[in-house]
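idk why but the lab printer keeps eating my pages so im just putting this in chat instead. protein + protoporphyrin IX containing FE:
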Amino acid sequence: MERTYITKGKFARVLMLFAVVLLPWLIAIFWVNKVSLEQKPVTVNIINYKADSLPSPVDHSAYEILQQDFTTPQQVTEACLSCHNKTGHDIMHTSHWKWSRPYVNENGDTVELGKKNIINNFCVGTDSNEPRCTSCHIGYGWKDKDFDFKAEMNIDCIICHDQTGTYKKFPVAAGYPVKEEKVFNGKKFLPPDYNKVAQNVGMPKRENCGSCHYYGGGGNNVKHGDIEKVLTNTTKEVDIHMGVDGENMSCTACHASDRHDIQGQLYSVSSYNQNRTTCEQCHTETPHENTIINQHANRVACQTCHIPTYAKAAPTKMTWDWSTAGRHNEDGSVTVEKDSNGVMTYHGKKGTFEWAKNVTPEYTWFNGNAEHYLIGDKVEDTTVPVQINTLLGDYGDLEAKIIPVKVHRGKQIYDPVNKTLIIPHLFGKDSTAYWKNFDWNKASITGMEAAGLPYSGEYSFVNTEMYWPLNHMVSSREESLKCIDCHSRDGRLDNLAGFYMPGRDRSVILDTIGVLFIILAFVGVVVHGALRYFSSSKK
Amino acid sequence: MKKRTYIYRRFERFWHWSQVLLIFFLALTGFEIHSTYELFGFENAVNWHNIAAWAFLVLITFTIFWHFDSGEWKQYIPTTKYIMAQINYYIIGIFKGAPHPTHKTVYNKFNPLQRFTYLGLKLLVIPVQVVTGFLYMYYMYPENPIHLGGIEITALIHTFGAFVLIAFVIFHVYLTTTGETVLTSIKAMLTGWEVVDVDEEEEHVEHLKSAVKYSIAGYYRLDKNGNFLDVNEAWLKMYKCSDREQIIGKHYSVARREEDVKALDTIVSKVFEGEIIKAIPATRKCRDGSIGKHILSANPTYAGGDVTGMEGFIIDITDLDDESEHLHYAVKNSKAGYYRLNHKGYYEDVNDAWLKLYGFERDEIIGQHYSLSRTKEDLHKLDEMIAKVTSGKSISNMIATRKCKDGSTGKHIVSANPVYDKDVVVGMEGFILDIDSIKDEV
Ligand code: HEM
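predcted complex ->
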C-alpha cells in the first residue's frame, strides 16, 4: 500500500516538475508567435493633419480684374497683388524668392547663403549662368547679378498657383514663359493664355511644385532621387503618402506654409535645423507598438527604416564626371551616348554620367545642421573628395540621428593654384560659354570673374561628393527595413563607426577565444570520455 | 554504507531544470543576436531573449531566498580539503577505476571542485551576465540617465559571459556521467533520490541534532550561572513560551515555583560536579503561571575538561493519569533511550541506553524491522502509532511493551515524532524512558 503511494507520488511530482518548467515556455511561445504573426491593420496615428481645414476655394474667374487681356506675365502679378496686397511683401522674405537664407559663418558674420551662391555637384554654380538656372526661380528676368529682388511685379504667382497645367516657364529664359512658340530639346513651348490661367488659380498641386522640384539638375529625378514626376500620379508602392490608391496626399499636406514661407528645406542648400517638415509632426515620436523600435527613434530617423530604396520609378543620376566633356562626332556635332534603356550616359557638353534605379541609400549621422563648400573655400587635400555639403553630427552628438542619403559623386573643374573649385561659365551665346565653345579656360575666366574670384589660368578636375537626405518615396511598413538589415555583419550600417551595435559588431579576438574555449571544452570532454570508456572496457 | 537518500528537494530540482532551460534558451537566442546564425529571426530572438531574461531574474530571486531558507548555501562554502585528490581523480584515478576520493552525502553534496565552480557561477558569472544583460537592455542608448558612453564594453562582457556559460555547460553535462552509472546523477536531479554514502558517525550526529530540533521531547541548555543558553521548540511549547527570546539569558529559577526551586538547585549543583541525572520527575512553572509535569534528564557540558554548563531533555507527563505518581520511581533508575526508524519501519539508529533496555547489540538491530522488538499482541498498537507519525503527527507519553532480545518484555514510555528529510517524512524517532522498575518497586 505504502509502495504504490510512493511510486504514484513520485510520478506525480516528476509530472508536476515538468508542467511547472514547461508551462511558462508554452505560454511564452504562444504569446510571442501570436504577437509577431498577427497582422494588425495598418492604423497610423495622425496628429495635426488638417488637409480639409483650408477656406473653401474662391472662384477667381468671377473677378473683373482677372478678365482683362493680359499681354505680359507681370500684368497678371499686378492683378493678383491688387487684392493679395501683403503677399508680395511676404514673398520677398522667402527662400523661394531669395534663393538664400541667413547663415552665420565661422567669423560670426551673418551672410546670405543658398542656391544663389552655393556650389552644387551638378551644373556647379549659378553665377554667369543665370538665365538657364533661374528658369526655376519664382520670378521673371533674373538673368544676371543685377536682378532687382525688390520688384514685386517680377514675382511669378502663376507657376505655383496655376490649375490649368498649361503654364510653363521656358528653360533658358530667366524665368519667363515664351512670347511666341519655341522648341527646346525637341519640346514645344507655347505662349500662355494669361487670361485663362489667371482665372484658374488655386492651392499648389503636385504638378506646380514638381515643375521645378522634379527636374533639378536639368532633367527628371537627376538630383533628388526621391522626388520625380512619377509622384504626380503614383501608387502607394512608390510613395505610401502620395499614392492615389492610398492616402493621396498633396505636397502641401506636409509642406504647409506660413504666409508663403513653406515648411521644409533640403540640406543641399540649407544649413540649419529650423522650419523642417518632420514625420513626427503627424506620426508622433513613438508611433510603434514595440517599445524597442520606439527607442530606436532616439537615434534612428524614421526615414532610415521606412525608405528602404529610392528612385523607385525613374533612375537618378549617381555620378557626374565633367572631366570627360568636350567630345564631338566626326560631323562636328556634340557627342551624345545613351544606354540600352535610353538613359543618357555621356554628353559632350557635360561629361559622363551614371544612373541608377531602386537604389539602396547610404547612411550617415545628421543633427539637422549642415555646412557647405562656399565659393572661394580652399581645398587643401585633393586625395579625398571635396565635400560639397557636410551633414553634421555623429554618434556622440545626442541630437544626431542616422538618416538615409543619396550621395552624389562628381568630378568638377578646379583651380590647382588658387586651390578653389571653379564656377565655369557654361550657358550663353557669347564666345566664352563652355557649351558653345568647349574651352574650359575661357569659361573659367568668365565664370570666376562673375563670381568675383581669382582664377590662375590653370585648371584640373577633382572628385566631389554631395549629400542628399532622403525623405520621400516612403514605403509601406511591410517593406520597411527589418532588424536584420542593419543588425548583421555587412548590414546597411556597416560603415557607421564609433558605436557598438548588436549583431553588427563583435570583438573578433573575443569571439575567437570564446569559440576556441568551447572547442577545447568539447574535445577535452570527448577525449576524457573515450579514455574512460576504453579503460573500463579493458577491465 | 550506502543508502538511497532524498538529496534534491522539489524546489531545488525545479530551480535547476528551469535554469537549464533558461540558460540554454538565452544562449540560443543570444547567439542569434550575436549574428552567429539565423534561427528565430532577429526581432523574435530579441523579444525571446528579453522575456527569458526576465524569467531568469525572477527565478534567481526566488532561488537566492531558497538557498538561505533551506541552509543549502552552506553546501557551496569552498574548501581546499581533498581538492588535489579530486583533481587527481579526474586526471588519473578515474581511468583506473579508483573510487571517488570524496563522498557525496546529504550534508555534503558537492565535491571541492564543484563547490568552487558552482560558487563561481553563483557569485560571478551569472550575476555579471544578469547585470550586463540589464544594462544592455536599458542603457542601449546614450540618452539614458546613466550614461555608459555606449554599450560596447557591456556587450563584450556579456558575450564573454555567454561563452563561459556554454563551456561550463559542456563540462557540467559531461561530469554528470561520472557517477555510479552514466545516468545516475541526472536521474537523481530528476527524481530527487540517489544512493549516496552514509557516514555513520555523521548520520548519528545529524540524527541527534535534528532529534533535538524537532522532537517532542524538550531540550534545554544552561550556562555555568544557571542561565538558559538554548532551548528547542518542544521546550518552548511545554513552557508556553511563544518566542525563544522570552527565556534565553534568564535564570532557571523562573521555570519553577518558589517551593520547587530548591530541588532544582540541588540537581544543578550535582550536575555541575559532574553527575549525570538520567531521569527525574519535575514540576515546571510555565510562562503564563500554569503548572506542568515532566521528566527531566541532565548532564554536564564540557569544554576542554571544564564543566561549562548543563543540558538535558524533558518529556512531558502532565496528562499522564495516576500512573504518573509511580513514574518518579520508574524513571529514577532509567535512562532515556533514543531510536530512529525509517519510513518503512526499519531501525536506522538507536543509542546505548536503548540497547541496554532491549539487550541487543547495535549490529543486531540496525536494519531490522520494528516488529522484532514487539510482542505479537502489542504490534498493532505500534503500527497505528507509526501510521500516525508518518502522517505528520507527534506522540508523547505513550506506554508501550517491548520485547527484548532474550524474549522477556518490559514497559516504557515513548515519545515519537516524524523525521523530515527536506520536505518529506522519511521516518520517525523519539525517546523511551523505562517504567518497568517502578512496577517492581511498587
Ligand atoms: C538576466 C539575464 C540576461 C539579460 C537581462 C540579457 C539581456 C541581453 C540583452 C538586452 C542583449 C542585447 C540584445 C537585445 O537588445 O536584446 C543581450 C545579448 C546577448 N545575450 Fe543576453 N541577457 C541575459 C542572459 C544571457 C545569458 C545567460 C546568455 C548566454 C548563456 C546570454 C547571451 C547573450 C548573447 C550571446 C548576446 C549577444 C551579445 C552581442 O552580440 O552583443 N544572455 N542579452
